[in-house]
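hey so i finally got around to running the thing on that chain from the lab meeting. sorry it took forever, my laptop kept dying and i had to restart like 3 times. anyway pasting the input first so we r on the same page abt which one it is
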Amino acid sequence: METRQITGRKVTFHRYNTIIVGAGAAGMNCAAHLCEFMKRRGIEDAQDRIAVVTRGLKLGASRMSGSDKQTYYKLGTSPTVPDCAEAFAATLTAGGCCHGDLALIEGINSLREFYHLVQADVAFPTDSMGAFIGYKTDHDPAERATSAGPKTSRFMSECLQREVDGYGVRIFDNQEAAHLLTIGSGRAKRIIGLVTLDTNPRTNGSVRPPSSDLCPPVSVFLAANLVLAAGGPGELYKTSVYPDGQVGLHGLAFKAGLAAENLTESQFGLASTPFRWNVSGTYMQAVPRFFSTDADGRHERDFLADFFPTMKSLATNIFLKGYQWPFDPQKIEGLKSSLIDVLVFNENRKGRRVFLDFRQNPTGNSGMSPFNIDELEPEAFDYIEDAGALQRTPIERLAHMNPPAIEIYRENGIDLHREPLEIAVCAQHNNGGFAVNKWWESSVPHTFVIGEMAGTHGVKRPGGSALNAGQVGGLRAAEYIVNAYGCEIADYAQDSENIDVQIGELLATFESWSHSSGRSPQKIIEEIQDRMTVSAAHIREEKDANESLKNALLLCREIREKGLAVKDSQSLIAAVQAEHLALSSVAYLKAIVDLLALGGGSRGSYLVLSERGIPIHPDILDPSGSRPLAFKPENLELRNKILRIQYDEASPDLFQCRAVVPRAVPVHRKAFEPAWQDYREGRIYEM
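ok and heres what got predicted. didnt touch it at all, straight out
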């Protein structure tokens, strides 16, 4: 560590071999594997060559997200059902727009990483013979899913952190990422470090004295390799189940030159809003009542009964939302389960609030028979009967099947035994992200992207596969860094002038914001969230998306010309986030607009509205009230095109898009002896 003065401010410099930005399950796994691989190579001080930098050690999706029994999707471990990596890859690529080599690698390394988690003490359940029993999740043709309960990803993060702590790796907490330092241009461009603002009110164990200084302490982390593991940009959306404050690093990464893929493919689903939590799995398999009220909580209405013809159909589709949880336009026609998502959204669009009530069974209308669990369709009844969940009320059924699913709400001040639960269709996960190769290296060499930031998923993915992808990505990045790039600590002495210039420009921007005529960061973020929720969520329309892109570009121009109104260090942090969210919103909208221009229709987890499309339901009308709301079906030809997007400051839209063909699942296999030779000689790391 060293310090030096830049534009009159003390800046602290740290130098490492590898910096990991993000402290969730993916980032912690990568840190643990880096230490493991370095020590195998005889590097005794491996822990001093690696550091984890995070905005908040206990924040982020890994620590704060979950569902009824949060799923970890892996290669099958059933003692009776055979599985293989090629079958796993076929499932991941089935929806299109997914690179086959990445899907196969996730299958090949799945059990290696799953058993690493088991050894790290994540309590995945077994039977008396030690078999890890699976269950079926969404978009899953097999029973590959398992779970350690509602907090699976939190347990993963905590167990992996204990491994990292055991190695002695330093974790820099409360660091707000403000800039990625770069050198070179074109193919020679490299990201050499991260500039952060220290938001911790304590320094060296004591409370930092109050200061009128606008800018918090500044740190620079220089590294030979950078691993980005900071999760998805959940703060882009107003209606979101991402943990509050999940900003991501996308704006920074775009400006630093990273290319992204499949940004159009976000996932949306029903979630509670007072406490952000997915209401999938047993929450729906308990078959609760849905109802809506006016904005003040009055005038209850069992709105589902107006659209399903019988109680059997209504109740069975509620059950099916358990493992058909993400909104899916292919499950609307013919009164399928995703019609429920549309109906919930339709109530919200009319200014009404929607609730789940676990105290009561579904309620129909005068033309329906009362709820009778024995009259569910066989798929639902057989599951409930096998689970022994034939109790009288939903809360009793939920308590029988999954008591921790009730407890997680009680921990957050909501008693499902006594009160209904408000829900909405929320942004939940981004299947797209930054483009990576088979070692999870980005389009900029020496910079790797893992976890939700990596665009490894296609249009659809099985529930829980993101956790597997994050673990495999961390393993692959760590292995390549150590074996292909080495373990030396970064030395950018020859670039110190360039580094100082970039830091000086950043500090000058911060200073200019203190006397800016621009709007407050919070107002900017609210505008971004409103626009993205209306135009880039699960309901999309081409004309509206184009208009939103224009407005998003105007917002970026406004920030560049007027700055942001900053009065203290707290609002400076918000301004940094607002600036990068604004650029991210342009990228996402640009990708959506360009895909729609290619003829993109409804797919994955979103509907594309079209007057000449397929009616959702004869009684769901468009805003004019003159015709049924209709959607454009999927354009199947586009399953074989991935939209790749990259920042281009000279472009009118700030980004350039082009379609690329997904890489196929590799089929060539070498015989053992030549493969062994490649391994011994390190040729497996040659691209």
